[in-house]
Amino acid sequence: MARIDYVDPANATERTNDLLKKLGHKNIFRMLGHSERHFETYVRMGNAIRFKGSLDPVLRELAITRTGILCDAEYEIVAHKRIGKDVGVSDEKNAALEEGASSDAFTELEKAVLRFTDDVVQNDRASDATLNPLAEQLSSADLVELYLAIGFYIMTSKFLRTFDVDMQTV
Fold it and tell me: Is the pTM of this model over 0.90?
């Protein structure tokens, strides 16, 4: 059960209600709706990460879902396994994300992305050992986008956990 009430549409601004309608009244957005300015900015950043970059969407979703796993954010894991499947992540790879880079389900590039993800989530600074192999395979833009996706979903996962945002029932 959520630690604070979700935003009440009857008391929300027209802009917040418009955003909630566009986003399907998902619980994460109903919680973010308490701060209209931050809600709107959060949505813009999330859309940029998911739809505006050059990073391969499968690599992005592997990193995002692994971030949710490492942050123990069930809401995020469920949502991004579904999103991942929609962009081409196989059921086998989705299942193997619990194991991470040691799983044979992943390509060498995917393993490098997962090792980098683990390093970013668990440490203050990604090591040369996880960054350099990716720098040899991805463009600088893709590296930046990968890092920003991981960082954004660390924040999202911790937001979900802090406020105990409930899983969707529909």
Answer: yes
